[in-house]
Amino acid sequence: MKFGVNFFPTVGPEDKHPADHFAESLDLAEQVDRLGFDHIKTVQHYFFRYGGYSPDPVTFLAAAAARTRRADLVTGAVIPAFTHPVKLAGQLAMLDNISRGRLRVGFGRAFLPDEFDAFGVALDDSRALFDERVEAIRRLWSEEDLVWEGRFDRFGPVTLLPRPYQRPHPPILVTSAISPESAQAAGRNGYGLMLVPSILPRERLQETIAGYREAWTAAGHPEGAETIHLSYGSYVAENSSEAYEKGKAYSERTNATLVEAVSAWSTARSEAYRGYEKIVERVAKSDFDRSLKENKSLVGSPDEIVDRLREIRTWFGDVTLSLQVISGAPPYEESLRTVTLFAEKIIPALST
C-alpha cells in the first residue's frame, strides 16, 4: 500500500483566515514530502466551507512543488466542466514542467448544483461534457496542430505550449462516486481511479474495484499496473481516547460542511445524477461510530490504525490511500502529529 495526504479544507473565514490556511498547508506539505509520503493531493470546490478554500488546485500544487522534491502532486480532482480545455491543459502542462514530472492529473465531474449554476453549466450535460473535455485535454497534450470539433468546444489547429514534461502526457485518474460504469470506463481507458469509501457499502466498493480491474485487464493494459486511490478521514494520537474524541469532533464538523454544500439537492434534479435527491438525507444521518466500526475512517492510536489498514488491505488489495488530515479544521500541530505517526509507526508496522 502507498500513502499520501489529501488537503481537503473544510473551513471558512469564521474558522481561519485563508492566508493562514495556505501557510499552514504548505508547511505541512513540506513535512509530508520530508516524511516520504507518496503524494500531495488537493481538491477543487467553490463557495462553501466544504472545500471552499480550494477553487484552483493548480495554484496550490505549484506552490507545493516549489517546496517539495519527491512526492507526486495530484489534482483530486480538477473539474473540466468549469474551465475551457485549452486553458486547463495549458495550466496542467505548466505544473508538470514546474514539478519536473511529478504531476498526476485527477479529473472529476463535480456534483454540487450551486457550482454548476455559477458557471452556467447544466447538470444534465455533466457526463458528456466531462468525457469530451478529458479527451480534448489528453489530445492537446499528445498531439500537434489539433483541430477539435466537439459538442461543447471547437478550436484549432493549435499546438499547446509548453508541452507536458511527461510524454505523451501525465498519468490520468478519474473520480467515481457511486457509478460502477464510470469505474469500468476508467479501466478500459487506462486511467487511474479515485474513490471515497465513506459513501459506499464495503461490498459495493469491492465490486466497483473488481469491475475496474477486470476492465483494465480486458483492455490489454499491463496487469497490476492500475492505480486506485481511496480517501479516508484520518486522525491519529498515541492515546486512543483522545484520538476518538477529537477525531469524532472533526469528522462531525466536516460532515456539517457537507450538509450545507449539498442542500441544493433538496430541490435540484438531473438524469445525470440519479438518486442524488436522497443525498441530503443520507448525509444528515451520517454516524461517526458506524463509520469507524466499518473501517471508513482512520481514527485511533497507531496500533488501532495498523489493524484497520490490514483489514482494508484484505478487502481491496494494495491500493493507494489519501489521508484527509486537515478536514474538520484541526490545529496544525495535530495534523502534523497524524502524518508523523503514520510515517514513523504505522506504515513501517504494515510491512512486518
From TrEMBL:
All copies of domain Luciferase-like, residue ranges: 1-315
InterPro entries attached to this UniProt entry: Bact_Lucif_Oxidored, Luciferase-like_dom, Luciferase-like_sf
UniProt feature coiled coil, ranges: none
Give the protein name, as stated in the record. LLM class flavin-dependent oxidoreductase
Source organism (scientific name): Actinomadura gamaensis
